[in-house]
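Predict the 3D structure for this chain.
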Amino acid sequence: MTATAWRAVEVADRTWVLSGPQDDLPAGAAPTEDDLRQARGLPRWRAEEFTASRAVLRRLLRQVRADLVGAAVRKDRRGRPILDGHPGVGISVSHDGGTIAAAVGPGRRVGVDVQLPPEPLSDALVRRCLRGRAPQVSALPEPDRSTEFARVWTVQEACVKAEGTGLAGSPWTIDVEPGRERGHWGPYRWVSLRRSPIPLSCAFTDLER
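Done. Predicted structure below.
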């Protein structure tokens, strides 16, 4: 599955991911006044990251649910972002190293994560996050080793973001087989966009009927 900068990819039925560089946002991407208000008081770098992420989310909403493009983003009781008044439309954003990703899934819970391959990557971190799968990744030459680790980590992070638990959900305990493009964890299915230039994954529940 290929992820091209600023082209929405449908990773599952009615579930889309949009990603690309923060310093070259897609045409028509803009935060709302409410987004800008929420960014006030943040450190400058964090405010820029925050508003860029919201702009990408708004751009994706304009493509797939234009009726919700101006809906305010709030947090539910678990800290997961939701569209105010539309909790059944799953949304998620991620950013790392100047890359931004957003996901929208009407009728689903969703989580998206993007991660630059870590440099350097310690053996201890590989063992902590991959456990019994660590030898499969540790045996790879660089830069494949760091890239595959980041791919696994984005799956783990996407799953706990969809769940709404984040790091408290111990993402490193989620078993992800290196090299896989698709899988599941409990009620969550996940897709690793393995042709994305930056490791990127999305997790989601089944569609609510």
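Residues 44-64 form the longest helix (21 residues).
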